[in-house]
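Lab notebook, page 48
Experiment: co-folding of the full assembly
Goal: obtain a model of how the components sit together before planning crosslinking
Operator: M.T.
Materials (sequences as entered):
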Amino acid sequence: MVKRTVEYSISRAPEMGVAGEPAHSPLFPVDLAEPELGAEHMLINIGPQHPATHGVLRLVCELDGETVIKVTPHIGYLHSSFEKLGEYRTWNQVVTLTDRMDYLAPLIYNCAYVMSVEKLMGIEVTEQCKVFRVILMEMERIFSHLLWLGTTAIDLGAFTPFLYAFQEREKIYTLHEKYTGARITTSATRVGGMMADIPDGWIDELKEFLLVFPRTLDEIDALLTTNAIHLGRTQDVGVINAEDAVNCGFTGPNLRASGIPYDLRKDNPYYDYETYDFEVPIGEHGDCYDRYLVRMEEMRQSVGILHQAIERLPGGPMDVPDRHVTLPSKTDCMSDMESMIHHFKLIMEGVKAPPGDCYFAVEGSKGELGMYVASAGGSKPVRWRIRPPSFVNLSVLPKLAEGHLVSDLIMINASLDIVLGEIDR
Amino acid sequence: MDDSPTPLAGSALDTVEEGPRTDHGIPVRLAATILGHPTVDGLRARFGASIQHHEISAGNQHIVYVEAERNREILRWLKQDPDQHYDLLVDVTAVDFGGGHPLQVVYQLWSVPHRRALRVKCELPLTALAIDSVEPLWRTANWLEREVYDLFGIEFKGHPNLRRIMMPENYAEGHPLRKDFPLRGRFTRAEQTQRALSQDPVDQYIPTELATEREPQVPGNPPLGESEAAEPSPGSGG
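Observation: model returned without errors.
Model output:
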């Protein structure tokens, strides 16, 4: 199949307004004087049930004509107080709450939570578990970015990338299902290990995905990266400079699009990320287009990391051989008194954590995903707090969208890559 | 540590589902003597007795307890001093250990150029839950502090828009993440449903938004600033 690519002569020097802001010139300039319209500002309510808000998000916009004067996000429609629920559950039971937050990248949340608890308890997981978690987390990064890519394209009216992206996502769903039995609510991790060993053939299927996926990504790339409509809708829209981006708490691809090379996998590495060979893509303009480019490149880098990690899988046990943490095998429980006692204690009381607190952050698909756990000793957390990347990213939306058109507001909101399940928690 | 059992005001359900064990008391504080932290020495030299305590948790995480009255001053120095340069406020949250212990406000800081992390904690007694807002230093704090205000009832002085963020504006049951808040809320399910149904749609908008609709502006008026100038809602003191 011959791949068609069309180059458009759209440059990065758009018409500038008096104050240096990009002027929105109409496609066909007309010389007619604009009719005098009423000077009233309109109050428009978008959401909470609206496909373009990517979840149960409500935006109240004050508009002057079609220009956004002010936008106030209202959140909390999905609030179910996971943090409170976590305080009533044992350390391992909390895992099921984590994947319900970000249902677009559930395994990263599973992993981040147990990694924090393991750090608090001082548990060093096995090499097999480390590499496997890296595989899962990088797979989820692709999984989440693909959804972002598809839905953002659909917000701009491009339907085909959506179908391509979801076709690939379906393969990752299948991988989820093969390993955990669930497609979205994976709950795959346990303190000190994983729920199960890697099933037979799972890695082969992942390899197959990694063969096909880059080609699909190239096709989407060809459809969007030089597409005139896409360029016109994303370049110089929702610009934020590096200093403001840090001050506003941006992390992840959004921050890197503004030119700050902050990636926890490089800056505060965990699970031997410093030994993997990968690049952190950086944007320079901090607009929607750079956020798009950064995520596209991140997916390619994740493919590279996945290839390296698959090579590294050492085999061997998945769980730590600590009887206070890991459940003994069923056979042992049935035949060995000691094992049965440990099984009983672990099931009835749960894993025990020492007093103290721990903040552990991983580079999630949407930004810095931190898990803060505080323990007073015992088998339940006193406080479990998620540092929510989407929540902080969304709080910048009013600043980004000010002065843009309503249609750009939709694009900016899409480019932030939010998931409301995690924002509301 | 002598702890009185947590006064759980609630139904019988709370006794069935045993909540967090608060009778352990707060963690024993091990003074950090072995591993130093460059920032902590600087803090001690500059702020002296306002730096109350320094401890290490989870192996290598440094925690500094500072005087709550001087939190903004200390955090401003941490952000602006070139040797410290904690430019990224990662998280603001609070911890309630229950049992009448003071609430902890936790600031999680990260320095992008120096690649250093620091956790700063301020302790607030339950009788005086107010602390200076750090929103003037980091815009991140805007929503994060609103969340802490909403779920813990800590007032952030000087915050431009201290409203509830997760719970509805007219939520009357208090602050859910406090230990004295029962897991299933203060009212029965029927009462909660009735409240939800009797809500006025106007309550779904904040005062500044409604003012916009009623008083059309003429062109040339300065647009409303990005910080919504709503006065802090009275909230509920509980």
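Interpretation: Chain B has six helices and seven strands.
Next step: discuss with group before ordering constructs.
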